[in-house]
Amino acid sequence: MTGKSEIEVIIGGKVYYISGYESEEYLQKVASYINSKISDFEGEDAYKRLNGQYQNLLLLLNMADDYFKAKNKIALLEEEVKSKDDDLCNIKHELISTQIKLDNAKNEINEKDLTIARMEGQAGK
Is residue 60 part of a domain? Predict the structure, then answer.
């Protein structure tokens, strides 16, 4: 585990010092995400007319929306992976069952071949 790092980031045109146990690259990525959300809204006139408190609330709501959508997508993907794992498990069981049937059929053929060879040997005497 890495130690706690403190870095300088720029969010919304202001310098902030943030710290955390994550890497500097990760913390910069978080700051960049926040800046991109701010940038998305700053081009809209309705956003500019809101006071700072409502602007922040709108940003928070949108980030929470992104979070829950991502969380939902992860859940769906995990469900899909589980379904594919179950399918794979079923296919493996089917393969094993088919292999056993094949081995049994080969054994039966070998036994019948031996029986035929014995019968031919006895008939030739």
Answer: no
Alpha carbons 116 and 125: distance in angstroms, whole number: 14
Residue 57 near residue 65 (C-beta atoms within 8 A)? no
Q: How far apart are CA 107 and CA 33, in angstroms?
A: 65
Number of domains comprising the chain: 1
Positive/negative CA dihedral, 99, 103, 106, 108: negative
CA distance 104 to 111: 10
**In a structure prediction context, what are the per-residue pLDDT tens digits for the chain, which is 125 residues long?**
568 989 999 999 999 999 999 999 999 999 999 999 999 999 899 999 999 999 999 999 999 999 999 999 999 999 999 999 999 999 999 999 999 999 999 999 999 999 999 998 887 66
Is residue 5 situated within a structural domain? yes
pTM for the structure as a whole: 0.68
Residue 29 lies in a domain: yes
